[in-house]
């Protein structure tokens, strides 16, 4: 099943590359389309792109690491955003982030080994009255306390 998915993504990448035959300077749009397919930029995909564009791999890698929009690691099934805006900071948001990091054994910006969660840094989530605020996928949780964290995470399998 997983290999079928990977194969399909590889085929999609081939299609994308074919769309750019003869287009110079198309590295960034190709990287964007590739990230759409895989959710990040796998090394093998970047090698294919380098081959296709006749560029050194180091140049493709360099561009991928330069722009914040590109991810070199897969993202988790669930994205956790812990607000680091002023209101949340004042009400202990940093501590909530630290506790979530400890609970999952990863740092902000990282993904758990089982690909269940990714923690992404974020500024104000626009719900300052509910500080400290945590967003998991599309759901927003306000007035998060230390005691609520485990239960909160358990909801997302
Ligand atoms: S500062 Fe956290 S929601 Fe605005």
UniProtKB/TrEMBL annotation:
User: A Pfam family for this UniProt protein?
Assistant: 2Fe-2S_thioredx
Organism expressing this protein natively: Vulcanibacillus modesticaldus
Keyword field: 2Fe-2S, Iron, Iron-sulfur, Metal-binding
Q: Which domain of life is it from?
A: Bacteria
Q: Does the record's keyword annotation contain Translocase? A: no
Molecular function, one GO term? 2 iron, 2 sulfur cluster binding
Matches recorded under NCBIfam families: nuoE_fam, PRK07539.1-2
Q: What detail does the entry give on cofactor binding?
A: Binds 1 [2Fe-2S] cluster.
Q: Does the keyword Iron-sulfur apply?
A: yes
What Gene3D superfamilies does the record tag this protein with? Answer: Glutaredoxin, NADH-quinone oxidoreductase subunit E
Q: Where does [2Fe-2S] cluster bind?
A: 83, 88, 124, 128
CDD domains named among the record's database cross-references: TRX_Fd_NuoE
What cofactor does its activity depend on? [2Fe-2S] cluster
Q: Which family does it belong to?
A: Belongs to the complex I 24 kDa subunit family.
Name of the molecule in the record: NADH dehydrogenase
């Amino acid at each position: 099943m997983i290999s079928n998915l990977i194969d399909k993504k590889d085929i999609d990448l081939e299609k994308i590359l074919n769309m750019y035959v003869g287009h110079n300077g198309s590295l960034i749009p190709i990287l964007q389309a590739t990230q759409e397919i895989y959710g990040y930029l796998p090394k093998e995909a970047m090698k294919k792109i380098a081959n296709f564009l006749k560029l050194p791999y180091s140049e493709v890698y360099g561009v991928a690491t330069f722009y914040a929009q590109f991810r070199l690691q897969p993202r988790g099934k669930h994205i956790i955003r812990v607000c680091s805006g002023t209101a949340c900071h004042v009400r202990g948001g940093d501590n909530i982030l630290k506790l979530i990091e400890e609970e999952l054994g990863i740092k902000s910006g990282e993904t758990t080994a089982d690909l269940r969660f990714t923690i992404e840094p974020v500024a104000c989530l626009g719900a300052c009255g509910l500080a400290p605020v945590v967003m998991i996928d599309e759901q927003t949780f306000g007035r998060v306390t230390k005691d609520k964290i485990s239960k909160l995470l358990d909801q997302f399998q």
